[in-house]
Amino acid sequence: MHYSQPLAELDTMRHFLDLAEWSREELDDLLTLAADLKTEWKTRGANPPLLAGKVLAMIFQKPSLRTRLSFDVAMLHLGGHALYISPAEISMGVRESVSDVARVVGGYAQGIMARVFGHEDIVELAKWSPVPVINGLSDHAHPCQTMADLLTIREHFGRLEGLAVAYLGDTNNVTRSLAFGAVRFGMNLAISSPAGYDATPGFLREMQEQGLELKLTRDPLEAVRGADVVYTDTWVSMGQEKETVQRRAVFPPWQVNRALLAHAPAHAIVMHCLPAHRGDELTDEVADGPQSALFIQAENRLHAQKAILVRLLT
Fold first, then answer.
1. What is the DSSP track for 55-105?
2. DSSP letter for each residue of 238-271
3. Beta-strand pair 188-192/215-217
4. How many angstroms separate the CA atoms of 141 and 21, rounded?
5. Within its chain, how far is the Cα of 118 from the centroid?
């Protein structure tokens, strides 16, 4: 196992806020380390205590299952400790300014993971924090999820380069991070969304600047033809509950079901960042079926984040 830090020559402290800030070589290193740590855990039942004596402070503005548990367990497996800080305990940006929270928490812990609403909060945390900050989710990006996605795809197909990914549904933070993953590793990405739920001009401009030619189509069947990966997300994200009726009236043609999957290659896998609203964006038959990679993908949050933690905190 190669645990040494290949970025040690860098003088500046690194944060993990957005895949756009990391090169293909750096991300490939993270994926390789994640795979090694996963193999080690599966075969030996343990990882070395690479983060012994380290504390990760976990700040939550949004509730979570996978983000909280995967980071907590990752620190435990690596010999460190994780501290959960609920929205009520800080009320970040209300009870205390983001800059004050960053400096106080950074004085106690060796790293900060934050799951926030506005991306500006994660950027502000990183600006003022004396320790590395990890974006556990923001309205702009979900980089930890994409690292788990890439690890899952690479495990299944043995490569990333040249694979085709079809994303169906609302173009959101998950879509954007997935697109940057595609850019970095030479994957092809097709996005199919209803009118009014398209990629923003800013998102498309970012992709053009990064050299990614997105395929945009209204037809979900066209999007999945030739796809190695069919990816979807919830129709109604946290904070959009008032739009539930409207969205459920618009999105049914984009549901990932058996009929839709019949238009994709037989080897295609189905992915979803979870939580899933079964019966909306995908059916039970697909979520629990032979092409589902949902729960491998969820487990890989643990292993991908171990690699991020090791690289940032050691």
1. EEEEEESS--SHHHHHHHHHHHHTT-EEEEE-HHHH-BTTTB-HHHHHHHH
2. TT-GGGHHHHHHH-GGG-B-HHHHTTS-TT-EEE
3. parallel
4. 12
5. 16
**Catalytic residue positions, numbered:** 115, 142, 145, 233, 273, 301
Type of residue at 220 = P
Cα–Cα distance between 138 and 117 in angstroms, integer? 5
Which tokens sit at 200?
């923003």
pTM of the model: 0.94
Q: Give me the torsion for CA of 165, 169, 170, 173, rounded to 10°.
A: -30
- pLDDT single digits (tens) 194-220: 999 999 999 999 988 888 878 999 999
- The residue with tokens 């991020």 is 308
Inter-residue contact 171 to 235 (CB < 8 Å): no
Domains recognised in the chain with CATH numbers: 19-142+301-313 (3.40.50.1370), 143-297 (3.40.50.1370)
